[in-house]
Amino acid sequence: MKTMLRLAAVVAAVALAVPAAAQESTSGRVGIGVGLPTSELGALFTGGDATLPAQIYVPINLLPNLRVEPQIGILSVDRDDTFELSVWSIGAGVFYMMPLGQQAQLYVGPRLVLSLFNEKDWDGPFDVTEREGTDLYIAAALGGELQPHPRISVGAEAQLGYFNIGDRDVTRTGNPTVTEPGGSSIQTQGVIFVRVYLF
Amino acid sequence: MKKTLRLAAVVAAVALAVPAAAQEQRRTLGIGASINPDASFSPTVEIYVPINLGQLRLEPSIGIFTQDRDGPGNDTSDVTLGIGAFYVMPLAAQADMYVGGRLKLNFASVDDGVNDDSDTDLTVAAALGGEYYLVPQLSLGLEAQLGLYQRGDVSGDDSGLFTTGLGFLRFYF
User: Fold this and answer.
1) Contact criterion met (CB below 8 Å) for B94 and B85
2) CB contact (8 A) between residue A158 and residue B31
3) Is the CB of A106 less than 8 angstroms away from the CB of B171?
4) Which residues in chain B are contacts of A165 at CB distance < 8 A?
5) Taking residues A161-170, what's their average pLDDT?
6) CA distances from A143 to A52, A95, A102, B36 (A)
7) Which of A17, A117, A173, B114 would you call most buried, defined as having the most Cβ atoms within 10 angstroms of its Cβ?
8) Phi first, then psi: what are they for A98, rounded to 5°?
9) Which one is predicted more confidently, B154 or A101?
10) pTM above 0.90, yes or no
């Protein structure tokens, strides 16, 4: 029995020690961040109705050299009985982190974002046109980050992205659904980041 | 007289030593993004690659923005290639000033499914900038530009003069 307890204690100690060690070396942080496009072109629009709303990021340093960064963006417009728009986007980046001195680090990796689009347009009380579709954004990203304080960082990220605009299913009241073809876009993007690490 | 000369030599040596020391700390290669509040003359978002060669900086840039529609509508493409050449003047251990110029070519094309057209836009600008290094690997900067642009048929067929200001964030490896 004592042997079992000792073994359990050792296993527990090791299980706790590994995350603790990882946490020390990576600042062990989960944070929240905002990304500001460096240009008015940087809102990832491609004309028409394809867009990614402004994104909120959640950087999670899993390992000293690995960061996963989920992101979410929501845009919703509701004009009483005339127009409704809803865009929900969710995605994540996975990055290999490379320290540059004490306070700075460089990272490289992909981002992938899925965006759900829905729009309703009223031509009359009983005449509604609904359009919906799904868009996909994939980007290769290279960024840098400076941490003047352990809980705050500022950084910049360069992206080369591919934006796939999905087909739109268009349904007008009393009519069958038709499909509008989508498209695609390739874009370079710049994003300035401010991240606050909470714990 | 000799003392004066010696003193002048010492002062000159110190004055030159600070910028030289400051410049020694500069990294050779980096990557940067510009903060451009007015994209009137920039059809793409450009990524910059600063290359420091002593007091000379070369800064190529590239920007891409294409749209390809599966159905009816225009397919468009803008690819911007630029090069900046600057003389860099160290001001302090953490600050530099630079002066020079930028040349950009934007290759624009449009295809409406029946006809296609392409043209090249040209931008030339004199630039004066400053850069502050928060750490050797990261700098914040500002740049003022006075430029000329000539846009082809695809982009509007116009030309003129412009002034603009850019913010920069550069990371050095």
Assistant:
1) no
2) yes
3) yes
4) 69
5) 91
6) 20, 9, 17, 18
7) A117
8) -125, 110
9) B154
10) no
Q: Which residue has the higher pLDDT, A164 or B23?
A: A164
What's chain B's average pLDDT?
Answer: 86
Q: Is A189 helix (H, G, I), strand (E, B) or coil?
A: strand
Query: CA nearest A103 in B: which residue?
Result: B135
Report the alpha-carbon distance of residue A106 to residue A157 in Å, rounded. Answer: 10
**What's at B122, amino acid-wise?**
L
One-letter amino acid at B27 equals R
10 Å CB burial of residue A24 (0-12, 13-18, 19+) is exposed
Yes or no: say if A116 and A85 are a contact pair by the CB < 8 Å rule.
no
Write down the pLDDT at residue A28: 56
Assigned token pair, A34: 């905002």
Give the count of beta carbons closer than 10 Å to the beta carbon of residue A58: 16
CB contact under 8 A, B33 and A190: yes
Instruction: Centre a 10 Å sphere on the Cβ of residue B45 and count the other Cβ atoms it contains.
Output: 28
Buried b (16+ CB within 10 A) or exposed e, B68-81: bbeeebebbbbbbb
pLDDT band at B156 (very low <50, low <70, confident <90, very high): confident
For residue B107, the tally of other CB atoms under 10 A from its CB is: 15
